[in-house]
Amino acid sequence: MPSKPVQPAALKKNDLIAMIGPSGYLDPGKITDCLQTLQQWGYQVMVDPETVGVYRGNYFAGSDLERTEAMQRALDNPDVKAILCARGGYGMSRIIDQLDFKKFKKHPKWIIGFSDITLLHLHLNRRVKISSLHAPMAAAFMKSEDTSYLLYLQKALKGSLSQYKFSPQPDNNTGHVTGELIGGNLCLLAHSVGSPSEPDVKGKILFIEDVGEHFYTIDRFLWQLKRAGWMDKIAALLVGDFSTTKDTTQPFGKSMEQIIKDVIPQGLPVAFHIPVGHQPANITLKCGVQYDLNIGKKSVILKEK
Amino acid sequence: MDQPDKWLSADSKIPPYLQKGDCIGIASPSGHIQYKELLPAINQIKSWGLTFKTGQTIGLKDGTFGGTDQQRAADFQQMLDDPSIKAILCARGGYGAVRIIDQIDFSSLNHHPKWIIGFSDATVFHIHIAHNYHLATLHSKMCNSFPDNWSSATPEQQATINSIRDALMNTKKMSYQSLKNPMNRTGRAEGELIGGNMRTIENLSGTRSALQAAGKILFLEETHEYLYNMDRMLWNLARTDQLRHLKGLIIGAMIRTPQRDPNDEMNKSIYELVMEKVKAYDYPVTFDFPVGHIVENYALKCGVPHRLEVTTVGTTLIES
Q: Looking at chain A from residue 261 to 300, which residues have their Cβ under 8 Å from any Cβ of chain B?
């Protein structure tokens, strides 16, 4: 049996969180509220001066080297108790193989993020065996938005066991399973397949979400996972937010529910409309941590074990 | 990773070339297409002295697809198993081949090999067949790229269509030229061609249809993607170790969708993005090769050995 991922320690008052930009550039205006909230939660925040809030005249938060070094410093610094990725976008694929997790593995800390950061979650799960937090990033803290779901991140950092209750959906497949949680952005899940970061999904609860892709692209990603054996190996599937999926001039002709039904074995427990993804309703999920999932007729309960 | 002895021993078989009177089957394993859209291709096929048979999927429509998965798989299967059909031309690309590839039994190709023709979404067939059946296939334009009016078509349009005939009927050894590009890496190589649409190739990664490019000359093309998506696909090739043992690398048209906000563009060109992935190796690399979603999309014989020569003057690719 492969060893289970190790959970980093919960944060204590005055612990230090490092905010790093490993992927795309984030407007500095989107950082202020995040800093303030984290401080209100009782933490100190160190904003990486190289990769957060400095516009480099292009897409990235910094050069590959700057982003790698910023991430490496935070991974290696024993004073840093958690790393909040400022933003996703694109860029993790360019630096993942440059990161050295040796010190981090000895002194694990929570790595927080989603979207492009999915690749890091998968890599941590497969290669490093440390749990990580699939959770909102800096822009989600803006007070002009609905910030109510940040509560779940706050709880997770404090070390409370997460427990969620969702309303049932007509297309759900009921079932009761226990397994490690793994998942994230569907594009990045597919991108990992065949690479050293591809997770072993056997017996796991897989959650997926994506933003702004076409139906045919979503379908293609799912068929890749299916053809790579994922759908036969997983214990259950949680379908997150796909509300921004685009259609083509010639309509794709299948709903998200039908697309999913086409790729899963009959009877696999599935729950739709889980609030995870590129929306304010984005819960915090602990990747690599055991959960109990009960998809019932009246409710869906996801509970950390 | 493939061991060298494995890929050296896996020389691909070549299906019989087509003779006058032979029949090409036209099927739509991916997107929906109407019969009238086949007419320009049918006219050319007839002018080559070949006959044609259209499959049941032509005209069928299920959402964006040329029929349901079952219908598309059954049509393709019938054409594979029909010994009177000597080649299968995919009517168009779009999306859909990956949904049916596992439903199709290709084993009749072992006894009655035939040419499978297409590009874009049909890359699924090229890569799957190369992986599992070691059989040559033809990467080329499909029915929806044939010019409506042959006599008024440009010389480039005519030349690319004629290249399909030349490849299928073996009327001459295939040869291609492209202009020099300062980003090219010079050198000579010989190997079987393999390749196609980059998104489609990434989609096969980690599956039983996965690209096996070691020992071969890899060609890639892409269209309608953001540059960062192309970069991510290139990283998938690098991180699945497909770039290490190449004999040569051919980059065709890489047509990118610009970012809505120009400030969101990456600060690298496609040339840089490719070269940084292969800088540790020394095989020849050539850019702007005439293959992809462009008018100059010449037929390429996948699985057939070619000689690639990239010099400071320009690039030539010649069938061995």
A: 262
How many CA atoms, within 13 angstroms, populate the side-chain half-sphere of residue A110?
Answer: 27
Q: Is residue B67 part of a domain?
A: yes
| Same domain membership, residue B203 and residue B71 | no
From B241, which residue of chain A is nearest by alpha-carbon distance? A195
Domain limits for position B36: 23-169
How many domains does one find in chain B? 2
Q: How much is the pLDDT for B260?
A: 87
Tokens read off for A57: 């005249």
Percent of chain A with pLDDT over 90: 97
For residue range B169-223, what is the model confidence (pLDDT) as tens digits? 999 999 999 999 999 999 999 999 999 999 999 999 999 999 999 999 999 999 9
Residue labelled with tokens 């850019």: B287
Angle at B60 between CA B58 and CA B63, to 5 degrees: 130
Complex ipTM? 0.96
What is chain B's length? Answer: 320
End of a domain among B117, B149, B169? B169
Q: Verify whether the Cβ–Cβ distance B207 to A97 is below 8 Å.
A: no
- The amino acid sitting at A125 is N
Task: Considering the candidates A115, A131, A162, A197, report the single residue annotated as catalytic.
Answer: A115
Judge whether A16-158 and A163-304 match in fold. no
List the CATH code of the domain at A163-304. 3.50.30.60
DSSP H or E segment with residue B182? none
Residue by residue, DSSP assigns A24-64 as B---GGGTHHHHHHHHHTT-EEEE-TTTSS---SSSBSS-H
pLDDT of residue B301: 98
